[in-house]
Amino acid sequence: MNEQDKTTVIMRLPSTLSVFSGGKSQLLLKAETFEQLLSALEQQYPLVWEQLCDAQGQVRKKIHIYVSNRLITTPDDLGMALKPGQEVIVLPSSIET
User: Fold this and answer.
1) Could you state, in order of their start, the residue ranges of all structural domains in the chain?
2) Exposure check for the chain: N or C terminus, fewer CB within 10 A?
3) What is 3-92's CATH topology?
């Protein structure tokens, strides 16, 4: 599948992370699954990806990511399908781990 065929989704970042995206609080990324979204983020916004993911590519415990009001919590969630225009919300966790 080429990039034009992939779904464009909107990742919304808190202001504390927008410094890593050149000041952008909304990132448009092409992906059909959450895993593809993380891959696109790593390629296009590596500094943001480093804040959200650990060296193994897993979402850090200090970060909460929601897709359609569902918290992404397990590796099984990587296969979650995304829809055109869908919003992915990134929030810092209230508990540091």
Assistant:
1) 3-92
2) C
3) Ubiquitin-like (UB roll) (3.10.20)
